[in-house]
Amino acid sequence: MAKVYYEADGDLKNLAGKAVAIIGYGSQGHAHALNLRDSGVKVIVGLPATSASRAKAQAQKLEVFDPGEAARRADVIAMLVPDPPMAKLYKEAIEPNLAAGKTLLFAHGFNIHYKFIVPPKYVDVVMIAPKCPGHRLRELFTEGVGVPSLIAIEQDASGKAEQTALAYAKGIGSLKAGVIRTTFKEETETDLFGEQTTLCGGVSALITTAFETLTQAGYQPEIAYFECLHELKLIVDLIYQGGIKYMRYSVSDTAEYGDYTRGPRVIDERVRETMKKVLAEIQDGTFAREWMAENDKGRKNFLEMRAKAGSHPIEKVGSELRRMMPWIQTRKEEATAAQAQAMR
Questions:
Q1: Which is catalytic among the residues 30, 108, 113, 135?
Q2: Rounded to an integer, what distance in angstroms lies between the CA atom of residue 228 and that of residue 206?
């Protein structure tokens, strides 16, 4: 069983007298900064002079510096920028300002695990990875509720890396819910695998393939949309609430029987073998190198794929059908407003 840490395992005194630099002020960055600040931790923010987020951070009465200056002033440096530009930012602004006794903290292991960033041996390298979007982390913190996080220690030069990481986890509120011990390798590889085979890639491909199968067989696209996409939320909500068993308990016996007998025919041994190949490409770094190379070349293929997917017939019919369901748009607007408010 995984080791889990709770409130008694972390002590904010381990951040007393220290400054935490939050590099980046997006979804995760703003939530970490504000939660830590409200927990009594000294927080500064590192953003380029051209960043539009500077005004947002300053409006929250946070001190903002260029990333290099923030790293120079800080004892703990939290790298909360997207994966592709992180290594360049680290090399130019962070690395020159590292010193013995400092801690590099990440919310995702990608750049460390694949060695796009190789920190000096004299600094601690840790991870605190909340398992939710940043605006949700902030929202629940203000309600006195924590969000589970993952913790990993990659490098413990000081002998106090775990204490620092747990104090940080307490500062953002995660120890109230529980923080699970992992490694940079495990977090990175399982995160990418889940995104590619289930959460994003697998689900998107399953939906669009099912939609195409029905429409090519002559069924109306509106009906195919409801059966293959719209109702998915109902099923996912049931799984989220009580697991797969609860979902099966909640649906009809006909649906449950179809689940047991037809599901394994759709997701068959060929799919399992493909998943193993996808995992191997994650483990050996093939995917990471491919993605970073795509960014280095200006994202041409990525942007073409985005445009093609965005023009799929399922998007057109979905846009039309959602006009019949104004409550969906209302919830979308509420969620967007909540996120924007959290970042103000």
A1: 108
A2: 9
Count other Cβ atoms within 10 Å, centred on residue 202.
Answer: 17
What pLDDT score was predicted for residue 342? 39
Average pLDDT over residues 21-48: 97
| CA dist., res. 189 & res. 82, Å (int) | 17
DSSP assignment of 141-157: HHTT----EEEEEEE-S
β-bridge partners, 63: 44
Residue 29's CB is within 10 A of a number of other CB atoms, namely 25
Q: Give the number of other CB atoms < 10 A from CB of residue 114.
A: 20
Residue of 344, 342, 340, 333 lying closest to 141 (CA atoms):
342
Pairing verdict, β 149-155 and 124-130: antiparallel
Whether residue 230 lies in the annotated active site: no
b/e 242-274 (16+ beta carbons within 10 angstroms → b): eeeeebbebeeeeeeeeeeeeeeeeeeeeeeee
Helix (H, G, I), strand (E, B) or coil at 21: strand
What's the pLDDT tens digit per position in 286-344?
999 999 999 999 999 999 999 999 999 999 999 999 999 988 876 555 555 444 443 33
